[in-house]
Design brief:
Its main location: membrane. This is FUSC family protein. It is found in: Cell membrane. It is built from 28 helices and no strands. The two termini are 19 Å apart. By secondary structure, it is mainly alpha-helical. About 1% of the residues have low confidence. The protein is globular and about 85 Å long. It folds into 3 domains: 329 residues, no CATH class; 153 residues, no CATH class; 175 residues, Methane Monooxygenase Hydroxylase, Chain G, domain 1, CATH 1.20.58.
Length: 688
């Protein structure tokens, strides 16, 4: 993609406005916390200090809107406490020019590395750099600096207290995540009725699993309908696919296919009803036609063999879904052993190890992002000191808040921030000229602007920046600054910060395109391990562990998502990877999708512990592990993998005899998928 087209795509992404469900009560609660802090600051200190102190409540509220499954009060407290520390440290070094610049560079570098712990940590860390830049403009004594830092921390405490005192839809995010997963599976069942090979989007299930991880305290308070339903739905997915697939389920045409479609439609209705009940916390209402379809007694007379086994198992799992969604059944996820999320104290060493690992990987996007942020913040601060504008900190602050580890987000946010700032300051200027607000009216307008930002921030970055610009101008106007002293400076310095962020990525990029083969190789290893774990169950049905299959499946999903995210980012980058064309990438990904699907179909028919072992299956499982690891190395070296070892192991298995047609058919499809993968890359090699 050319640079011009890449810039157009980035601009379109940054200026995009989405229709999202608004949450006015949460926005009002956050704005109320901000109003309390501003009011206390005005009563106890100067308007200028109040404007700076409001940053704590403002940023703490922003942190609670991030996509995180930790309790919102905890996010607010962590944000407020870290902002207070940054404020105090910034005050202590603010008068020491060289020392402050060194500290700013170090603080910003650490903020960039914080992205290794996830977007929420990265955003909170970036806010810490911003508050350090803002507060050093207020010279004061150490005692006053401590008091000011205390007001910043108070902002986080106020927001946390309001969340506890005035809860809005408790467990709402977790309910939505689980309901989205069930709705996605219902949609999958419907699509399988018409297309037995329809793809499945695993992201809702990955999100639901992340949401299901709770602290020990949360585990005791979690609503009963959030226990177990996800686990049952996870077990249901391969059964649904197995029933619909003509190779191991109902034939493509005839009475069995009609009965399978009827059961799939009923399953979709039950899953939709479960999703609605969980999302809204209401009793579950199952449509009568779905119940009738599932209770039809002639299933065994119509369906035979593997299709009948899949149908019986699916109906049993749907019954479990109904019971757990209503909070009346035995849960699959043992309530005594939930998915536990580490506490913040236990998370610290994990985050430190992640950051240390990124420091040693000089070519990692996180490491490069941290270096870019440190350099840009330092240069922006020095330029702000030299240029004849007030509030010179706006340039580095804008750059730090814009920058992200990938190209599209950085450039899109830079364009969106400047566009939103232009619109916001234009609207603010009109209001100021018409109303001439005083201190208290300016404070009220600042709170209103922040409330609108909280309400609309998820609709698009550009929309949020309109109200951020208004909030800042009104907040500074509260301290007596005229709009003519703030608006021109903010526009010019925001543009400067955005340009610095964009230039830094062009000079020191972290392109995803050259890493596509590595991502593809990682996916091949993960799906090969999953297939091997499934096959190994036939070699030792009594000793094999289902948890190994589960863990390998989760690794496949993570590698799958990483590949598709990398491919999407690479598609918008202004670079070209000559070692892997888009057509070859699509064909190879299709082959790995097929391999994962075949393994999933075999998982749906895993043997019982009393089943007779098939020793040759162990040889095939070892061949799959070994061959996919060698194949991954070949992919990284721009060679097409060879599967002779898998072919020989499958021939040996045939020699021993395979009593179940599902097993033999699945094993053959595994080899076909691997050969299809090699053909995609081999053709790419011939073209090059």
């Amino acid at each position: 993609m050319s640079w011009l087209r890449a810039l157009k795509e980035a601009a379109r992404s940054g200026l995009k406005i989405e229709r999202r469900r608004l949450e006015p009560l949460i926005a009002i609660r956050a704005a109320t916390g901000l109003a309390i802090v501003i009011g206390l600051s005005l009563a106890l200190s100067t308007p200028a200090a109040a404007a700076s102190s409001a940053f704590g409540a403002y940023s703490a509220a922003v942190a609670t809107f991030q996509r995180s499954w930790r309790p919102r009060p905890v996010l607010a407290l962590v944000s407020g406490a870290s902002l207070a520390v940054s404020t105090f440290v910034g005050y202590l070094t603010g008068t020491q020019g060289a020392l402050f610049i060194v500290l700013l560079a170090l603080w910003t570098f650490l903020a960039g590395l914080a992205w290794a712990a996830g977007p929420t940590a990265g955003i909170i860390a970036s806010s810490n750099v911003a508050i350090m830049l803002v507060t050093v403009t207020l010279p004061t004594s150490v005692s006053n600096a401590a008091g000011h830092a205390g007001m910043i921390a108070l902002g986080g405490l106020v927001q946390a207290a309001l969340i506890v005192i005035f809860p809005v839809r408790r467990w709402g995010a977790q309910r939505d995540a689980l309901a989205d997963a069930l709705a996605a599976e219902a949609d999958y069942a419907r699509r399988l009725r018409q297309d037995p090979h329809a793809p499945f989007d695993a992201i809702p299930f990955m999100t639901a699993r992340s949401a299901a991880a709770v602290s020990a305290r949360q585990a005791r308070r979690r609503p009963s309908e959030l226990h177990g339903t996800r686990g049952i739905a996870e077990r249901m997915r391969p059964v649904i696919a197995s029933l619909a697939d003509p190779s191991v389920g109902a034939p493509a045409e005839g009475p069995e296919r009609d009965r399978a479609r009827e059961i799939l439609a009923a399953a979709a209705s039950v899953l939709d009803a479960s999703a609605h009940a969980i999302r809204h916390g209401k009793p579950m209402e199952i449509p009568a036609p779905a119940l009738a379809a599932l209770k039809t007694p002639d299933t065994g007379a119509v369906l035979t063999g593997p299709a009948h086994r899949s149908a019986v198992r699916l109906i049993a799992l749907l019954r479990d879904v109904v019971e757990t969604a209503q909070g009346t059944g035995t849960t699959v996820d043992d309530p005594a052993k939930p998915l536990l999320r580490p506490s913040l104290t236990r998370l610290v060493p994990v985050v430190v190890r992640s950051m240390r690992r990124e420091v040693t990987r000089r070519d990692s996007p996180i490491h490069r992002h941290a270096l870019r942020m440190a350099v840009v913040a330092t240069i922006g601060y020095l330029l702000g000191e030299v240029l004849p504008f007030g509030h010179g900190y706006w340039a580095p602050m804008a750059a730090v808040m814009i920058m992200r580890p990938d190209f599209t987000q950085t450039y899109g946010r830079a364009i969106a921030r400047f566009g939103g700032t232009l619109v916001g300051v234009a609207l603010t200027t009109a209001v100021v000229q018409l109303a001439h607000p005083g201190m208290y009216l300016s404070a009220g307008l600042a709170v209103l602007s922040a409330g609108l930002m909280y309400l609309l921030m998820r609709t698009g970055y550009a929309v949020g920046q309109i109200f951020v610009a208004a909030y800042v101008v009104f907040l500074l106007g509260m301290g007596g600054l005229e709009w003519t002293q703030t608006v021109p400076d903010r526009v010019i310095l925001t543009l400067l910060g955005g340009l610095l962020a964009m230039i830094s990525y062009a000079v020191y990029p972290a392109w995803e395109t050259p890493r596509l083969r590595t991502r593809l190789a990682d996916w091949l290893v993960a799906v090969g391990r999953y297939s091997a774990e499934v096959v190994s169950h036939y070699a030792d049905p009594a000793g094999a562990r289902r948890s190994d299959v589960r863990e390998s499946l989760l690794a496949v999903r993570a590698a799958d998502v990483a590949w598709h995210e990398a491919l999407a980012r690479a598609a918008t980058e202004p670079v070209r990877h000559r070692g892997l064309s888009r057509a070859a990438a699509d064909d190879a990904a299709h082959a790995l999708d097929r391999l994962g699907r075949v393994s999933m179909l075999m998982e749906a028919h895993l043997p019982e512990r009393s089943t007779t072992p098939v020793p040759a299956a162990a040889v095939l499982a070892d061949a799959l592990r070994h061959s996919t690891e060698k194949g991954a190395k070949a992919v990284r070296d721009r060679r097409a993998p060879k599967w002779d070892e898998v072919r020989e192991a499958l021939a040996a298995w045939d020699g021993e005899g395979v009593p179940d047609r599902v097993v033999r058919k699945g094993a053959g499809l595994v080899l076909e998928s691997l050969e299809e993968f090699s053909e995609a890359l081999d053709e790419e090699g011939r073209r090059n």
